[in-house]
Write a structure and sequence with these properties.
Elements: H1 2-33, H2 35-40, H3 44-57, H4 62-74, H5 78-91, H6 96-108, H7 112-125, H8 133-146, H9 150-163, H10 168-180, H11 184-197, H12 202-215
Helix pairs in contact: 3-4, 4-5, 4-6, 5-6, 6-7, 7-8, 8-9, 8-10, 9-10, 10-11, 10-12, 11-12
Amino acid sequence: MRIVSKLNSKKKLFIIISLICAFSSLFAQTAKRDALLLHNNGKEREAILVCEEELKENPRNIESYVVMCWALIGNKQYAEAEQRAQEGLAISPYDLRLTESLGEARYYLGKNTAAMEQFQKYVANASESSPRLGTSYYFMGEIFIRQARYQHADIALSSAVKKQPLLDNWWIRLGYAREMAGNYYEALAAYDEALVLNSSSVDASRGRERVSAKLQ
């Protein structure tokens, strides 16, 4: 009886250990799948760590590169985002998500020409339903403003607000581009749109006052 009891105890112990291992494996897999969720919840550093672990296991995991780039940009680690995007594109040259992320990283690093190349590539190849299309047009507009190419900025930012019309700051930047180009009536219309979305916007109010004064 004691021998049977010992065997049963060993069997129970084996089952318990097996269950612990199974749950640990399941937990690890769940943690990996949560990288995007972590990023979406603003937990960028945690998302980055999860992606790093994924890439240690599979250095060619494009999804890990994509989420890592988003998280790095969200965490303002732009140089690292640029590097990771380039690494990902070396594996998957036509991944538009990495193309757009590379553009953003370079935009924040002040690499205007290099950033513009990525955004132009994105908008040329993305479908009309692509989630970052409006954002790409917005960044293109900002680069044109940096370069004092205000008519070009007007075109890009007009495309941006057409895609995402509920962002008051984009309308303000469109108003500014038009104002700097001397298109005061169009600038006034853009500032008015911004104020409809956010009546307390100081930048929109001041912009409207400036162009109104020039139209008198």
